[in-house]
């Protein structure tokens, strides 16, 4: 499987659409100057997508690092959407408690 297919210049000059960088990392461009990074993975036989941040605010290198970090966890059976929501709830309770 090819990895690191996109470059900064190719991403900047690409028209709106979906562009794969390899290893499940995708750039979804809504407009020529805006888009979002998405990590595609399978969990219990179903395809899932996890947002990694807006492009170009999140660079290609940062998106690749985040994809590498998160790519090892989806196979563990965890639902990352729920974990992120639980983390947000816990941090909100911590702020209220303080």
Can you offer a commentary on this structure?
The chain is an alpha+beta fold. The protein contains 3 helices and 4 strands; from the N terminus they run H-E-E-E-E-H-H. It has a 4-stranded antiparallel β-sheet with strand order 1-2-3-4, with helices on one face. Strand 1 (17-22) and strand 2 (25-31) form a beta hairpin. The protein is globular and about 35 Å long.
Q: How much is the average pLDDT?
A: 76
Oligomeric state of the chains present here: single chain
How far apart are the termini?
48 Å
SSE string: HEEEEHH
Helix content: 25-40%
| Percent of residues in beta strands | 25-35%
Tally of helical segments: 3
For the biggest sheet, the summary is: 4 strands, antiparallel
Please state the structural category. alpha+beta
Number of strands: 4
Side by side, the strands of the main sheet go 1-2-3-4
Radius of gyration, CA atoms, in whole angstroms: 15 Å
Low-confidence stretches: 74-80, 85-90
Q: What would the principal axes of the Cα set say about the shape? A: globular
């Amino acid at each position: 499987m090819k990895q690191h297919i996109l470059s900064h210049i190719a991403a900047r000059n690409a028209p709106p659409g979906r562009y794969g960088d390899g290893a499940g990392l995708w750039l979804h461009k809504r407009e020529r100057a805006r888009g979002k990074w998405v990590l595609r993975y399978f969990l219990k036989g179903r395809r899932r997508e996890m947002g990694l941040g807006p492009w170009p605010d999140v660079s290609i290198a940062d998106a690749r690092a985040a994809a590498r970090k998160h790519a090892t966890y989806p196979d563990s059976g965890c639902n990352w959407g729920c974990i992120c929501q639980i983390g947000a709830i816990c941090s909100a309770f911590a702020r209220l408690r303080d």
